[in-house]
Amino acid sequence: MNAVRKVEVGGEAAYAIEIGPGLLDDGARLSRPLRGRHALIVSDGNVAPLYLERVEGSLRAARPELALGRFVIPPGEHEKTLARFSQCLDALAALGATRDACVIALGGGVVGDLAGFASACWMRGIDCVQVPTTLLAMVDSSVGGKTAVDLPSGKNLVGAFHPPRAVIADTAALRSLPDRELRAGLAEVVKYGAIFDATFLDWLEAHADALLARNDEALAEAIARSCRYKAEVVARDPFERGDRAMLNFGHTFGHAIETEQGYAGTTGDGLNHGEAVAVGMVLAARLSSALGRAPAADAERLQRLLERFGLPTAIPPGLDPQALLTRMRLDKKADAAGLRFILWDKAGAARIVSGIADDAVLATLVA
Q1: Closest CA relative to residue 16, chosen from 2, 5, 3
Q2: Can you tell me the distance from the alpha carbon of 227 to that of 353, in angstroms, rounded to the nearest whole number?
Q3: In angstroms, what CA-CA distances link 198 with 112, 131, 132, 192, 344?
Q4: What pLDDT, in 10s, does the model give residues 197-240?
Q5: Which residue from 162, 141, 143 is spatially nearest to 80, judged by alpha carbons?
Q6: At what angle do helices 251-260 and 321-329 cross, to 10 degrees?
Q7: pLDDT in tens, 139-187
Q8: Alpha-helix runs per DSSP H in the chain
Q9: What are 43's strand-pairing partners?
Q10: 67-103 b/e with 16+ CB inside 10 Å = b?
C-alpha cells in the first residue's frame, strides 16, 4: 500500500483526514473512530453495489461485536430531502442506535450531507465518519462539517454544522468514478487555487493530463493540498462567520443554476454541482473584472484551465438571467446588505464583497 497522507483539521472538534489507496479494506482504520457498538452505513444506489459489502466486511473483521445497519438511497441531488432525512432517522431507530453510535457516510456529497445531518440530529448529535468515494466529496463536502438537505426553493437551506469524527478517503475508489464525476471534482480542486494560491493553479496546469488519467500520486497530492487549504480556513472559522465563506467562490452563481434546473445534473439534463461551480467561478471572475477589481486576463486563464479539464464555463441555454438573480436573493450567502459574492483581486486572492448591485450581476449573467 502506498503511504497514507494525513491532514489534520484543528479547532475544538479536531479530526484527521486520511488519504490513500486501499483504505476501504482497512478494518482497523475504519473502526478506530467508532466509540460504541452501533454503526449505520449510509450510501446510495451507485456506490452501495460497489463498496458497501466490502466496508461491512472490513468492519466486522476488525470489530465482530458491531451491530451494523445500512440505509441506501437512490442516487442524485434530488434525493437530498427532508423525507430521506426522516427515513435515515428511522433507520437509526431500527438499529437501536445509542448516543455513542456512529453514522458512516459512504458515497459522494449527497450521501455525506444527508448522513451528516442525520448524525447531527439523532439524540442531539452522534458521531459521523465520512468515507467519500467521489473526488468532489474528498476535497470539499466531507471536510468541514457542513451538513444539509435541500428544499424546492433552494439548495442546502436546512442543515447544521457537525464536524465529522474522521474522514477516510480511499483514492482507489476514484477508479470506478465516471469521467464526468471526476471532472466535477476537479472543479472544486481548481477553486482552492483560485481563492488561496495561484501557484496551485500552476501545478494543476502542469499536471492536468496526469489528473485526467487518474494517476494515483497526482490525485493524492491534489486531494491532500485541497484538504490542507480547507482545513486551515475551517479551523479559523468553523461556523462560516468570516473567511470560510471564501470557499463559496463560484457557488452563488452555481447554486442558482442547480436550483433553477431542478437539480437535474444526475439525469444528464442539467449541470451537476461541480459543473455548475465551474460556470459560477468563471462568472464570479468576470464580475470581478467588470467591477474593476481584477484583471480580465486572470478570468480568461481560469476559463482555459476549467475547459482543459472538460468542464463547462457558460450558462446553459434556456436559463433566464432574471430567474437566476431571483434564486441568488434566497441564497444563504445573501445578507441584509444585499447580494454577497466571493470575488477576487487576482488569481489566488479572493475576498468577500457585500452589497453588489443587481444590475452588475444581471449584466454578467446576460453576457
Answers
A1: 5
A2: 24
A3: 29, 29, 27, 9, 12
A4: 999 999 999 999 999 999 989 999 999 999 999 999 999 999 88
A5: 141
A6: 110
A7: 999 999 999 999 998 889 999 999 999 999 999 999 999 999 999 999 9
A8: 27-31, 48-62, 82-95, 109-121, 135-136, 179-196, 198-206, 208-212, 216-236, 251-260, 273-290, 296-308, 321-329, 358-366
A9: 72
A10: ebbbbbbebbbbbbbeebbeebeebbeebebeeebbb
Query: Contact 9/235 with Cβ under 8 angstroms?
Result: yes
Amino acid identity of residue 323, one-letter, is A
Instruction: Select from 42, 128, 47, 132 the least CA-distant residue to 87.
Output: 42
| Residue type present at position 290 | A
**Reduced to 3 states, what is the DSSP secondary structure of residue 180?**
helix
Name the 3-class secondary structure at 81. coil
Q: Is the dihedral of CA 57, 63, 67, 73 positive or negative?
A: negative
The neighbour count for residue 296, using CB atoms within 10 Å, is: 12
Q: Indicate which residues carry an active-site annotation.
A: 124, 146, 188, 230, 240, 244, 248, 251, 255, 273
